[in-house]
């Protein structure tokens, strides 16, 4: 089997993980979550979202979060920026990587960002240009790459089509996202293999929600297709407010356990990540959704 020696984890817990929480999570908690994840070795963190607070109230304190965190110069702090206003907010607050986010399905594009795929690309054009001028990294996320909560099946061609358009905007990295966690391994292998025919594999990331429990298998399938960047969320927190029923991202703890067990480096500390996962789950009053996290906490308690 041909797997990478090193994988880059993009920790999305503070953004994807928390954005769907109904009760407002205190800014101090969000700041502490980011700081603790850095302490655990996360190389890249989605720390905030400069989106409309009418659309996603939980992310309304993006500025305060960015201002509150202790900055580690080795860490990439990323934030979602759907339009120029979002980009300006991100740049004013020292974000290192901005994320434009579109979809492979028309229906999801409309529900999530209130415009068609073609309109979104036009909107992103200026965001991308200004991000490049400002010298920050530009990442593009493609939702519903394996299925859509509104339209159902999504063709590989539509994923490739928006991937090309995102690449033409100058994206440094492209995330292929399973928003509702429906993908299975062969489908993932096929999509990732085709995407890497148009985007160098070092610049493609897998973003898997774990709704159907397939995310680890999908990470393995992606690695077999040459991918070595994966998004995960501590304690498996998360979901998208515009994808009803979709649960969290694959838990960072579960990904670390699998990768470290396979001898693949991540630079992250599993024990520390497990502690963070339980801490944030307790604070927001959710069951820890990481199997590895629960197992390791239970083992500690019995020893
Ligand atoms: P719109 O309503 O078409 O745009 O929303 P608008 O320009 O008419 O703005 C509406 C209001 O929001 C206005 O306020 C704007 O000023 C304000 P009002 O005049 O009514 O008082 N506004 C903003 N405020 C702060 N920051 C901004 C901003 N922009 C406008 N940047 C818009 C269009 C894109 C803004 C909206 O649809 C939006 O914010 N959507 C974000 C949805 C979102 O964040 N979804 C979750 C993240 S994506 C995700 O989770 C998927 C991912 O994880 C991958 C996967 O799993 O698939 C990445
Ligand atoms: Mg997501």
Automatic annotation (TrEMBL):
One of its GO terms (molecular function) is hydroxymethylglutaryl-CoA lyase activity. Pathway: Metabolic intermediate metabolism; (S)-3-hydroxy-3-methylglutaryl-CoA degradation; acetoacetate from (S)-3-hydroxy-3-methylglutaryl-CoA: step 1/1. Residues 7-274 form the Pyruvate carboxyltransferase domain. It holds the Pfam family HMGL-like. Gene3D superfamilies: Aldolase class I (3.20.20.70). One of its GO terms (biological process) is L-leucine catabolic process. Its EC number is 4.1.3.4. It catalyses: (3S)-3-hydroxy-3-methylglutaryl-CoA = acetoacetate + acetyl-CoA. Keywords: Lyase, Metal-binding. It is an enzyme of class 4 (lyase). NCBIfam families: PRK05692.1. Belongs to the HMG-CoA lyase family. This is hydroxymethylglutaryl-CoA lyase. The gene is yngG.
